[in-house]
Specification:
The complex is a heterodimer of chains A (about 240) and B (about 775). Chain A is α/β, with parallel strands linked by helices and about 240 residues long. Chain A is built from six helices and ten strands. Chain A has a six-stranded mixed beta sheet with strand order 6-7-8-3-9-10, with helices on both faces. In chain B, helix 2 packs antiparallel against helix 18. Classes of the chains: A alpha/beta (about 240), B alpha+beta (about 775).
């Protein structure tokens, strides 16, 4: 039986901007398991990014609790959350967020330099098939290549969890598939718990489990009996 | 209000801190310009009004005893407008409640008329009446320093007699706007006073009935001054004329000229520094603003706004910032200019100080500032024209970076990726990096320039008072005495050591270059007065020939071994040819030295001395003062050590005030440059820095990227700033190099250190202000947007 990695209980997030109150998450309780690849599906504003930000330690909940293994994230200070992100979480974003002044290798080294037991930047880049593009600056790489550098950077520190927010959102289908293949391989090889946010329903079939969001709540959770390979995803 | 103007106001509200920082830099430029030019004009106008209304002389000459019948012949010289023959004599003053003897200068006023040249402004009372032996009018600063009122009395020792006098008038003369006592380096209004007496009374006291010893002329417009001087010299030569000179050698006028030059130099150097820095800052923030608003610019163009309209919109923002700077700067400039003009009131005695702040000055300052701001904005605004609307609405391509070392070099493993990020960013925008360094360096330079004068003056004090003129006081005789008089001086109470000197007026000529100087004769072995060579080693005066100070040698184009003509002005102009046997170091005046015995041989007069340098037992000082007041042969006593104390105090006060102002100016520049540069870096890199936070870097680590960049900039700025400061100090020293004094260029390492500490602290402060913003980075927002 896989161990739970994340457990949320009655997680609620309310944003207040001026007099407007937005309920982004409303009493969400869910669990993500070790080694699991989960796709979080839903339209914009359904609360999936808010959930990812909270479990990634980027944002704080208004009420409810989140546990990362035995650690209660909702009780951590700003400083402890920074430490948590540094030691346990890998992030991949829609717009890559590479540092333009660092080469591919250096972008990965940025994270490995401060990690506890990282792999070599070269190894991480090889896992995403970029060993021959290591000395290129972001401006010299295509969008797909940039996203794979971002993935290499996220996994190089051997995080327990990999959180991906629309990792293929800015890519065409061909490069998108390359990125998904990299994510699937890492999940497979390293056993990293992976959560992928998308509104591309075609992607859901590569996951172990699909969690659908609507209006800040989990509308549906189902397990894929049969998973497909990323190459088979219909865009 | 048009919609674009509303945007303008809201943009400014958002950018207020950066805008204000730039406006403050501009304000410094405006304020220093208004202060310097305003004070220049005040001083210049006050002087010229005083000169015009009170007929300040154009030519001055002295003689030993010339008959008054020369007047018609002097007036007959072509170009002479008016002539005033008078008697001027130094005197020792004995004032109740003042132990040390004061020095006075007695000047005659005509008995039945106003002086036709150098008229006297009467502040209170009247001029002395003819023949009233006890009546004097005293100069206002002297009266003020002693709290004298009409009817008060003091004693003047004139021609060996103690003469009680009563004050009937308090007056000012255009000849003594800046009045400095014999042997003094700064005016001391308590120790030196000019007083006016009836001509017949002074003539009686000095046995000068039917004679004069000083003459001042005014000339017609376009008169040939050199010709008048030549003819006047010829007329006075038989009567011990010591050479006529024009205003440039008149002490009061020359000091005012030096002050005006200094103000002009300040107006020419300092405001441009601020205007340059503000133009650069405007360029920096506007370029960033336009880059951020790229899509808005594209939209405006797409809906039909012209490039000119959009450019004008940004120009208005810049002009708005400039106007804030001009308003603040004008207020500060007005206040500082008035304070500076008032300060002049304490050094220079004018009957009226015109502090006129004409609108044209403010218009000039405003115009220059707006121009500098728009010049800074020009480049940024031009990018708008180059932006086609479709491109503008797409996000810009990612910045292209390159490595700073060739790829075949081993990788820099000792640097963290964060450091590499910082350094590559600096190299990516080399011009901006350089200008930021330059801006910061300018504030270091400004501080070095403002503070070095303390080092130079310190060195000057050390050289003058502790190495060359080491006496406590200098006694000048009323007339030259036999050299044995030195024993009488040595016998005065409290005198520990006395050394004789002789002073002789002469005109030195080398080819067509000539200078009027006093040749000082010194004994072979001296302890108190020493002559130093240009490397500050004492020179033993050679047994023959002439020693020239560096500045005199330069003016005469003479060097070691040259033979120059010495016209002995006191000896009917007899001319001898002497060899230059040494070059001496000298900061004050143009000086020439000879061995005392050689000088006496030259004069063909036997062993004569003009006075003595003395070292004094401070415990017996009051008895010495008393003795000096009672010794008829002593015409004046200069108290070097008292002068020094006062000099130090005055200089320290002035320097403290000016340094405070300059530190404030430098802090404003540094803050303006570093704060804006950090804000722009933050704005450009918010995404990167937020990403770093997401990856688990701490706030301190993330800040270190910005801090590394700023540290590199600020550190590189230091040596550059020292170098520029040294250069500016050099030009200041050059600018102040006059016949009256020369300031050595000395910049101590402490000065560099203080300049750097001030700049580093204000840079640190501005960086910390920006660091607070790093702490508030919104992690989620920056990740969702695409720049």
């Amino acid at each position: 039986m896989p161990q739970p990695v994340f457990r949320t209980k009655d997680l609620t997030k309310i944003y207040r901007t001026g007099e407007v109150e937005v309920r982004a998450l409303s009493s969400v309780s869910m669990t993500l398991y070790e080694g699991e690849m989960a796709v979080l599906l839903g339209p914009s504003g359904s609360g999936k990014s808010t959930l990812l930000n909270i479990i990634g330690g980027l944002d704080k909940a208004s009420s409810g609790t989140v546990h990362f293994k035995e650690l209660e994230l909702t009780a951590l200070s700003e400083r402890q959350l920074t430490r948590y992100r540094r030691d346990h979480v890998g992030f991949v974003f829609q717009f890559y967020n590479l540092i333009p002044s660092l080469t591919a290798r250096e972008n990965v080294a940025l994270v490995t330099e401060v990690a506890k037991s990282p792999m070599a930047p070269e190894e991480a880049l090889a896992m995403v098939d970029l060993e021959d593009r290591m000395s290129h600056f972001p401006a010299q790489l295509s969008g797909g290549e940039q996203q794979r550098v971002a993935i290499a950077r996220a996994i190089a520190k051997r995080p327990e969890v990999l959180l991906c927010d629309e990792p293929t959102g800015a890519l065409d289908s061909k490069t998108g598939i390359l990125v998904l293949e990299a994510l699937a391989r890492i999940n497979e090889d390293l056993g990293t718990t992976t959560a992928i946010i998308t509104h591309n329903a075609g992607i859901q079939k590569i996951a172990h489990r699909v969690i659908s969001f609507r209006d800040g709540q989990i509308a549906d959770t189902h397990t894929n009996e049969v998973r497909i390979k990323p190459a088979e995803v219909v865009w | 209000m048009r919609v674009l103007d509303k945007k303008l106001l809201r943009d400014f509200r958002r950018l207020w801190a950066q805008g204000l920082a730039i406006a403050m830099v501009m304000a410094c430029g405006v304020a220093t310009l208004i202060m310097a030019v305003g004070a220049f004009r005040s001083l210049e106008e006050s002087r010229s009004a005083f000169y015009d209304r009170y007929r300040f002389g154009s030519i001055f000459a002295a003689a030993v005893r010339a008959p008054t019948h020369l007047q018609s012949r002097i007036e007959a010289i072509s170009g002479v407008a008016a002539t005033e023959l008078r008697i001027m004599q130094p005197a020792i003053l004995d004032i109740e409640g003042m132990n040390e003897p004061a020095s006075g200068l007695a000047v005659s006023v005509p008995d039945f008329d106003e002086p036709s040249v150098n008229r006297i402004y009467i502040r209170a009372g009247r001029l002395p009446e003819p023949g009233r032996g006890n009546e004097v009018a005293v100069s206002e600063p002297f009266a003020t320093a002693h709290g004298f009122r009409l009817g008060n009395s003091f004693s003047a020792i004139m021609n060996g007699q103690k003469h009680p006098v009563t004050i009937v008038g308090i007056v000012l003369s255009p000849e003594f706007i800046y009045a400095i006592g014999p042997g003094d380096m700064l005016p001391d209004q308590r120790r030196f006073g000019v007083f006016f007496m009836s001509k017949s009374v002074l003539a009686g006291l000095y046995d000068l009935n039917g004679a004069f010893n000083s003459v001042s002329l005014t000339t017609l417009r376009n008169a040939n001054t050199d010709n008048i001087i030549e003819q006047l010299d010829a007329l006075l030569k038989p009567y011990g004329g010591t050479g006529a000179h024009d205003r440039s050698e008149q002490i009061s006028h020359a000091f005012l000229d030096a002050e005006l030059d200094q103000l002009w130099a300040m107006a020419a150097v300092i405001p441009p520094i601020f205007l340059f820095v503000s133009a650069f800052l405007v360029n920096m923030i506007l370029a960033r603003l336009i880059a951020l608003e790229r899509e808005q610019v594209g939209l405006l163009k797409a809906v039909g706004y012209s490039t000119v309209t959009i450019g004008w919109h940004y120009a208005k923002l810049v002009t708005f910032i400039a106007i804030i700077g001009i308003v603040i700067g004008s207020g500060a400039g007005f206040w500082l200019g008035r304070a500076l003009t008032r300060l002049y009131g304490t050094f220079y005695s004018f009957p009226f100080l015109i502090f006129r702040q004409s609108p044209d000055l403010y218009l000039l300052a405003g115009g220059v500032t707006v121009t500098a701001a728009l010049a800074g904005a020009f480049n940024a605004i031009r990018t708008i024209a180059d932006l086609p609307p479709a491109t503008a609405m797409r996000p810009p391509a990612p910045a292209n970076y390159r490595g700073f070392l060739p790829h075949w070099l081993p990788k820099l493993h000792f640097m963290s990726q964060l450091t590499i990020m910082a350094l590559r960013h600096l190299i990516r925008w080399p011009v901006r990096t350089f200008l930021t360094i330059l801006g910061t360096a300018l504030s270091v330079a400004l501080l070095v320039t403002s503070m070095f004068s303390y080092d130079s003056i310190d060195m000057m004090i050390d050289t003058i008072f502790f190495q060359t003129e080491r006496q406590d006081a200098t006694i000048s005789f009323a007339a030259d005495q036999h050299k044995d008089t030195i024993f009488d001086v040595a016998a005065l109470p409290g005198v520990l050591l006395a050394e004789p000197f002789r002073s002789v007026a002469a005109k030195l000529k080398n080819s067509h270059w000539q200078e009027r100087v006093a040749i000082t004769g010194l004994p072979e072995r001296t302890d108190l007065s020493r002559v130093l060579d240009p490397d500050f080693h004492p020179i033993v005066p050679p047994g023959s020939g002439l020693m020239l100070s560096e500045s005199l040698a330069r003016k005469l184009h003479a060097g070691m071994g040259d033979r120059i003509d010495v016209e002995l002005l006191e000896k009917n102009g007899r001319t001898e040819r002497l060899t230059v046997t040494a070059i001496a170091q000298g900061f004050v005046g143009l000086t020439a030295y000879m061995r005392l015995d050689a000088l006496n041989r030259l004069m063909l007069e036997g062993d004569q001395i003009s006075g003595a340098l003395i070292k004094v037992d401070t415990n017996a000082i009051n008895r010495l003062y008393q003795a000096v007041k009672e010794t008829p042969q002593i015409a004046s006593i200069a108290l070097q050590k008292i002068t020094l104390q006062r000099f130090r105090r005055t200089i320290e006060e002035n320097i403290t005030t000016s340094t405070t102002i300059y530190i404030a100016l430098a802090v404003i520049i540094t803050f303006g440059v570093i704060y804006n540069s950090a804000r722009i870096q933050l704005s450009e890199r918010a995404r990167e820095l937020a990403s770093l936070r997401v990856f688990g870097f701490t706030r301190a680590e993330v800040s270190s990227v910005l801090m590394t960049e700023l540290t590199v900039i600020v550190l590189l700025a230091q040596p550059l700033g020292w170098l520029m400061g040294y250069g500016l100090a050099w030009s200041v020293v050059r600018g102040l190099d006059t016949d009256l004094f020369r300031i050595p260029l000395v910049v101590n390492s402490e000065t560099y250190a203080i300049a750097s500490i001030v700049v580093l602290s204000s840079a640190l402060f501005s960086a910390l202000v920006v660091r607070r913003r790093i702490n508030r980075l919104d992690l989620i927002k920056v990740l969702k947007t695409r720049e």
